[in-house]
Structure formats: C-alpha cells, structure tokens
Amino acid sequence: MKAMTYRGPYKVRAESKPEPKIEHPNDAIVRVELAAICGSDLHLYHGMMPDTRVGHTFGHEFIGRVEQVGGSVQNLKVGDRVMVPFNIYCGSCYFCARGLFSNCHNVNPNATAIGGIYGYSHSTGGYDGGQAELVRVPFADVGPGIIPDDIPDEDALLLTDAFSTGYFGAQLADIAEGDTAVVFGAGPVGLAAARSCWLMGAGRVIVVDHLDYRLRKAQEFALAETVAFSQVGDIVRELKNMTGGLGADVAVDAVGAEADGHVMQHVTSAKLKLQGGSPVALNWAIDSVRKGGTVSVMGAYGPMFSAVRFGDAMNKGLTLRMNQAPVKRQWPRLFEHIRAGHLRPSELITHRIPLDHIAEGYHIFSSKLDDIIKPVIVPAA
C-alpha cells in the first residue's frame, strides 16, 4: 500500500509499505477515504516529539470503510463507513471506565501519562496512522463509530480530532454565562474552541494570533474579536486593557509546543529541544486571565521541562485544566450542533491534497503558505 513515511525532521514522503494485518481478534482494517494533517503532526515533522522513528506513518484524523475485521469484532462489519477517534483505548481499564479514553493504560502501558494515539511516535504506542491507504484499528468494537447518514464526510473527519478537541477545550474552560474567553491560537483547534465558547455561554470571545489570514478566519468562522500579538507591545497588557483591567474570565491555550512570541523560548524549545515546548502561549494565558480564572490547555507539549509560570498561576488562584481530548465523548453533542446548523466543521478545510503530494502538503502547512488553515489528504486522488 501507499503511505506517508517519516524520514527525519522536515522530511516525509509517500512510499510503499506492507499492508497492515489483523494482529488481534478485535482489530479491524480500514481503507482510508479521507485523512488530515493536524498542527500536532507538525511537532513530529519538526522533530519536537521524542521517539519519532524513521518509517513511521503519521495521521490521527481519518475516516474510511471497514475492509476486514477480526474474529471477535461484533459492532462493525465489512463495508461499514467509520470515523475513528485519534485516541486508541480499550474501553475497560481503570481510566476508560472513568471516561478518560486518552489515558487508557492497556494501549500504552509503559507510559506514565498518555495513552495510545494513531501515528504519533512510539511515545504514544508506536501505532501507524491514517495518512495511508490502509490502517490497522485496534479495539475496533470500542473506538470507531459508524458515520451517521446525515453527517457529511468532511464534518465527520474533523470530529476525529480537531473540532472535538476545540470543543473539549471550551468545555474544560468551565465557562459561565456571559464570561469573556480568550483563545490563544487561530489554527483549527483554536478556531473550533473559539466557536465552541459561544455554545458554552460566553458573552465575549477574543482570539490571539499573529497571522492576518488566520485572524480573518477567526472573525468569519468564530465570530470573535481578534488581536495580532505582533502588532501590540505587550499582549498581556493589551488583553487587560480590553477587559477593564481585570483580565479575561477564561483562557484557552490552543497553540502548544511551537508558540511564537518570545525568541529565546522558541529557540530553546523548537530549535535546541531544551524544553518540551515553548510555553509562550501558556504563560500569556496564565498572565492575561483574571485572578480566580480558569486556563484550559489544548496545545500539545512534550514530556520534557517547560518554563511555565506556575508561581503566577498559584498566586492568582487559577484553575488549570488540561488533557488530550476524549474524542468519542464529544460526538453526540457535536452531531446535534451540526444537525441544528450551529456548526459546520468542514468550513475550516482549505486544502485537499493527494497522498502522492503529501510532502508538499506538509511544507505548505508548516510554512503557513497559501492561507492554509486545515489540509485534508485524499488517498484515492
């Protein structure tokens, strides 16, 4: 089969790999119809995440058709069209029983924090991802869901991570009616979070980024006020001025490991790999939220040290809430919002790229060319 393969930092290509096989009776093999490149994939592409091995296939957002099932699979059959959450989870361990699907112990037992994720290095289990023609789906009775007939394919695709994660970020922010929410980052997850803040009852939503085209998208898609941090002297002071001197009620970090805005932090993390991620956006969130406020962290960080302003968070009495999103928990509510016309996740998609051209797709996305927001990979194109 054809699949994206990692060849080292900034080097990916489409090449032939052996087709995946049923390895356990509860496995399924899915033929991928649509996949996506996520901002988190860029952390792998840039060499930010540990134990990313040559030959690994990325891609934790994909939908497709079931081509083969293991002997114990009961909930799926050959021919079913499925959407697959990025979390790989068993559904029965201590953590899964509590709805913490992203922290499943049985799919990544050597890790002390994260569970399994498709295509996200061997630190999350080493499972190949969906930027390929075929993918092995473990615990097929638990994770995948059949795509409802009234949910468009591209909307379903974005619910496998980006939109579900943004929605979860807004949930974690614990927004009270009328609250002011500030979202750092106008990528797909940040845009989804900003739009979702309105659904949680926010009275005002502000999005911070530095790219004009992404800020325009935040105005159009998320109906948000915007601030370009590169155009103001001190983004924290600017946000305090916009909120009567107190700060926002809640803040969402939807940037993560490669945040711009502070040269030394960016260099030590993104270039020298001395930190698990540039904490710029997270520190801005901590400093710009009011005392007693809430910070929700959706941006991906590595397991290494990061220079986070934890003392500021403690002394301000902040609540910090974070996790990888338990994607499937979000689907019933998101389906209803789509059916009611409140959301159309596919409006975030700007590029559709054949699998053969995936190296170019990564380059465009990494370099923020051609006003790219969300690229989709089409294996059959």
UniProtKB/TrEMBL annotation:
<dbReference type="InterPro" id="IPR013154">
    <property type="entry name" value="ADH-like_N"/>
</dbReference>
<dbReference type="Pfam" id="PF08240">
    <property type="entry name" value="ADH_N"/>
</dbReference>
<keyword id="KW-0862">Zinc</keyword>
<dbReference type="InterPro" id="IPR013149">
    <property type="entry name" value="ADH-like_C"/>
</dbReference>
<dbReference type="InterPro" id="IPR020843">
    <property type="entry name" value="ER"/>
</dbReference>
<keyword id="KW-0560">Oxidoreductase</keyword>
<dbReference type="InterPro" id="IPR002328">
    <property type="entry name" value="ADH_Zn_CS"/>
</dbReference>
<keyword id="KW-0479">Metal-binding</keyword>
<dbReference type="InterPro" id="IPR036291">
    <property type="entry name" value="NAD(P)-bd_dom_sf"/>
</dbReference>
<feature type="domain" description="Enoyl reductase (ER)">
    <location>
        <begin position="8"/>
        <end position="369"/>
    </location>
</feature>
<protein>
    <submittedName>
        <fullName>Glutathione-dependent formaldehyde dehydrogenase</fullName>
    </submittedName>
</protein>
<dbReference type="Pfam" id="PF00107">
    <property type="entry name" value="ADH_zinc_N"/>
</dbReference>
<dbReference type="InterPro" id="IPR011032">
    <property type="entry name" value="GroES-like_sf"/>
</dbReference>
<comment type="similarity">
    <text>Belongs to the zinc-containing alcohol dehydrogenase family.</text>
</comment>
